[in-house]
Amino acid sequence: MIYVKNPEEIGKIKAACAVVRDVLAYVGKHIRAGMTTKEVDTLVHDYIVADGATPSSLGYYGFPGSACISVNEVVVHGIPGDLVLKDGDIVSVDVTAEKNGYNGDACRTYCIGNVSPERRKLVKVTEECFFEGIRDLKAGTPLYDIGYRVQRHAEANGFGVVRAFVGHGIGREMHEDPSVPNYGRKGTGMRLKAGMTICIEPMITQGDWRVKTLPDGWTTVTQDGSAAAHYENTVLITEDGAEILTL
Ligand code: MF3
Ligand code: CO
Ligand code: CO
Hints:
Creatine Amidinohydrolase, 15 strands
């Protein structure tokens, strides 16, 4: 079921997205080598709560953190814990917050200290993939044009596109229809409508795109052990464009 949001709902989604945007800016200022991923999670948790919002991920299907914190070969759903961040790591921090019954969701991949040029390029291209994906996006655009553009940009740079996880609609629920893959055929899929709110979130690998989930049931890593990056924003489709709500 795809929900088209009315102006009142869009206002609430924007408020939740503003919290997420601010949390990620705050994390960007404080994250550094020597911190544990649990300490980063605590920053996220306390910031969200102080903003009068709720960390949607905490307890979601039993997830034990307020953010997913995914280091190097961890692609998504890293569980905050005792892992100490070190020079050269790339760290994805994925945050969803709920305010007044509506959600916002975004992710950034941070570079810790001196990161190799290859990994920096991966992080940069992953962000570019998002902006490629939303290029010319507006009401009427075929849904899979997004993935087509993301995939084309990632693969043109020699990187892999994760298939096992996708973007999604967002609103009252963190995950709503439709699924928004980061791969696809141009000109296919449903036509987007004004008032839809979707999360576009390229997950890009330095090597092969295949992933596996560890026995903890959450931590998802690349099968070949290569590094991965993740970049996500919540986006509102309008008649003449797409508004990024978490920037
Ligand atoms: N923020 C993630 C997404 O982009 C989902 C979080 S999974 C959770 O869809 F278990 F941590 F909640
Ligand atoms: Co997310
Ligand atoms: Co998401």
